[in-house]
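seq:
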Amino acid sequence: MTASGSGDPKDQWPSRERLAELVLRPTLHRDTFEGWQHYRLTRGQLLPPPHLTPKQWAVLPVDRRFDYDMFRRLTNVNLPLQQTPMAAKVTRLIKRRLHGNALKMDDPTLAGVMVSGFGHYGKTATVSAVCAAFEDSWLQLHDFLNPAAVPGTADLHAPVVYVSTPVTATPKSTCQAILRFFRADTRASATLPRLVQLVADTLRDHGVRALVLDDISRLRMHRADDQDVLDLIRALMSLGVTLILTGVNIPGTGLLREAKWNARQQQWVLPPLESTRVNGLEPTQTEHRFELVEMDRFRYTTSEQINTFLQHLHGIEAHLRLLNAKPGMLTTGTMPEYLMRRTNGIVGLLSRLIEDGCQEAMDSGHEMLDEGTLDEIVIRRDDPQLAPEEVDPTPPATAGRTPARRRRGRNTVFDDHGPASAAGSAG
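struct:
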């Protein structure tokens, strides 16, 4: 998105007209075909402007100086998505499931994936990126044609559908959300069987291979409607598409019953339903068809964890554009420990702290990030200097537990090896 230019610094970033297009472009949500395609085709294309020293900036014409500053702001608040170890684990699983399911033949029900994690852990960004990459490769494999096209039609080819779970979900509203991705008109009087059939026809006609249901943790199993939505999800699994469900703390929501971490098996396990004593079918049809993976935060205990965090900071630092920025601005001295303390290693909070800090640095004329500048930024309602071991990233205990166990649950975090005490975890 940068101009090629002729070597003159003032010609190495977009014109004001192009900047206006970038800044004033309409927001396209991913839960429509147009919005998803816009995301897929433009992700990762924002290239930073060249580095300028304060002296080089000062000699720019006033209008180009304004343009450069606007482009810097645009760059600093759109940090690139980096492949962290936490995201890599999720990426590998989804990629394996998508490509494997897409090549299956005559399998009546395709296995799905659940991606769980707490707020700002990067679930949606990671899932969207891997699904967009899958769509790129799938389209190239078929020369951008729909291999399942119905003769005599010209349906859109949409290998991936992204849908946000309705706030008060019902089977009908969930079907309507899927159809709305294609801006399909549905009558308010349409019956549920009719809507389910429309969804099945739409997914087939558009060559859909993956259906992402974001914010699935909005479902609460004490509501009859939400239980019916779970039945609908089971039905969708038999339509030849891979279901990818993302949500906050899926194991603790009761969506598929309270899951527990099995350290010996190194995976989440689900206790048996009461109904299994009658027929034993429901776990086979639902839980056994999903693999649950947990998004984690950065840790800061072992040398490997510290190096991983530093690499992530280095990637951010290379993207930022501040006039007084020096190499190692985020990675040397006490800055890494400061950033870990402020954000507890949570990717989303780290991004927000740095993005807001860059705006403060530009507005104040300081033009660099240091602890003094970042101290001015509040990124959450609690104490911004809260130590990591004091942060509670776990869900509240369920009502069936004893008070003593509930107190211990609030001091528990999840790492790659299952539950661990917060006092002994990285932070």
